Amino acid sequence: MSRYFNAEGACNAAEHYMVNLDERIRQIKELVDRNKYFTINRARQYGKTTLLGALAQYLRQMYLVIELDFQLLSHGDFETEKTFTAALARELLLVSGNELCIAEKIKKRLELISEQGVTLSVLFLTLSEWCAESPKPIVLMIDEVDSATNNQVFLDFLSQLRGYYIHRKKRPTFQSVILAGVYDIKNLKQKISDGSTNKVNSPWNIAADFPVDLSFSAEEIAGMLHSYEIDYQTGMHVSAISELLYNYTAGYPYLVSRLCQIMDERLPKSSRFPNKKAAWTTAGVLEAVKLLLAEQNPLFDSLLHKLEDFPQLKQLLYALLFTGQTIVYNADDAAISTASMFGFIKNQNGNAVVANRIFETRLYNMFLTASEIQSSDIYKAALQDKNQFIRYGHLDMDLILERFVTHFNDLYGDQPDRFEEEDGRRYFLLYLRPIINGTGNYYIESRTRNMRRTDVIVDYHGEQFVVEMKIWRGNEYNNRGEQQLIDYLDYYHIQKRYMVSFNFNKNKQIGVKQIRVGDKLLVEAVI
Question: Which pLDDT score, from 0 to 100, does residue 385 have?
Answer without folding.
Answer: 84
